[in-house]
Design brief:
By secondary structure, the chain is of the alpha/beta class. It has four helices and five strands.
């Protein structure tokens, strides 16, 4: 059985990545999917009060729950068997690679998006960092 980590962020690109894995599953590959949603830690804490930091973290939790719920629905519609959904916090690319290693996945699948006029010529910075750090194959879906 092929174990695949699918990075989700609620974007259209992540939806396309989910659909690509669904096609792989329908092509008679036996797949187990792990869904991962990573929220970045705030880069600047400054003089935030403890209550403000708790509010920021609570909002991130809510957003991740919404994203993962939608991703579970999309995975189900695509005919995927999801073994778990994971929430993480930190540098997004680092967390994707860390979770992939911890879960001993065979492949990482994620969407990528180009930004600006030159965006179609380059992959996103998170996708590029995952490619460079990962020891397993990475499938990028545009």
């Amino acid at each position: 059985m092929l174990k695949i980590l699918i990075a989700v962020d609620g974007s259209e690109h992540a939806e396309r990545a989910m659909a690509a894995v669904g096609k792989m599953a329908r092509a008679s590959l036996e797949l187990e999917a792990i869904l991962l949603c990573v929220s970045p830690e705030p880069l600047f804490y400054g003089s935030y009060s403890a209550a403000t930091l708790q509010k920021i973290e609570a909002e991130q939790d809510i957003q991740q729950n919404v994203i993962l719920k939608l991703a579970m629905e999309q995975a189900s519609a695509a005919g995927l068997k999801v073994s778990e959904s994971v929430r993480a916090y930190g540098v997004i690319a680092n967390e994707i690679v860390r979770i992939a290693k911890d879960r001993q996945v065979d492949q990482i699948v994620m969407g990528t998006r180009g930004m600006g006029a030159m965006g179609n010529l380059f992959i996103g910075s998170v996708a590029q960092a995952v490619i460079h750090q990962s020891s397993v194959p990475v499938l990028l879906v545009k």
